[in-house]
Automatic annotation (TrEMBL):
Pfam families: DUF4442. The lineage of its organism: Bacteria, Pseudomonadati, Bacteroidota, Sphingobacteriia, Sphingobacteriales. It comes from Mucilaginibacter defluvii. This is DUF4442 domain-containing protein.
C-alpha cells in the first residue's frame, strides 16, 4: 500500500506492536528518505533491572528499513516487496532512559539501490541502527539485512524468453 509520509507516521505510531511497546515515530522524512524514532522506558516495556526490555529494542528496529524502502521505491513507480531478512543486535549498555535512533538514506544509497533493482531485480544489504540514550551514549547497535525485490524485473525477464 502506497501512503503519504504523514499517513505512514501516524499508521506506525498506532500500529499495536509498536504502540504497546512505547515505540513512537517522531518524523518520516520527505520522500521516505529517513525516520526518527523514540523508544520510551515505561512500565509496559521495562525488564527486571528497570531498563528497556531487549525485545522492545529489537522490535523498534525491525520494520523501518523495509517500510521506508518499499514506500520510497513504490512512489518511484517500482513494483517491489521488501522485508527484513536477518538481524543481529548488540546490547552495549542498559537502556534506563528513553532511546532515540534515526535512519537516513542518502542520494547515493538510493541511486545504488535503484541500479540494483533495475539490473539484477533485487537488492540485499545490511543497514545499521544505533540507539542512543538521553545522555547521548550509545546503548544498542543493530545490523538489519534488508531484501528488496523488483517484481516487474522478474516479469520482464520471463517476457523476453
Amino acid at each position: 500500500m502506497v501512503v503519504s509520509e504523514n499517513t505512514l507516521k501516524w499508521a506506525m505510531r498506532f500500529y499495536p506492536p509498536l504502540l504497546f511497546q512505547r515505540i513512537w515515530v517522531q518524523k518520516v522524512e520527505p520522500g521516505y528518505t529517513g525516520v526518527t524514532v523514540v523508544v520510551h522506558n515505561s512500565i509496559f516495556n521495562r525488564n527486571y533491572n528497570r531498563s528497556i526490555f531487549g525485545g522492545t529494542l529489537f522490535a523498534a528496529a525491525d520494520p523501518f528499513y523495509p517500510v521506508l524502502l518499499h514506500q520510497l521505491f513504490s512512489h518511484k513507480g517500482y513494483n517491489v516487496i521488501a522485508w527484513l531478512k536477518s538481524s543481529a543486535i548488540q546490547y552495549l549498555k542498559p537502556a534506563r532512559t528513553k532511546l532515540r535512533f534515526g535512519i537516513t538514506f542518502s542520494d547515493n544509497d538510493i541511486n545504488a539501490i535503484e541500479h540494483s533493482l533495475s539490473h539484477t531485480g533485487k537488492h540485499v544489504a545490511h543497514y545499521p541502527v544505533e540507539m542512543y540514550d538521553e545522555a547521548g551514549e550509545l546503548c544498542v547497535t543493530i545490523s538489519n539485512e534488508v531484501y528488496l525485490r523488483n517484481l516487474d524485473f522478474v516479469l520482464q525477464k520471463e517476457a523476453t524468453k
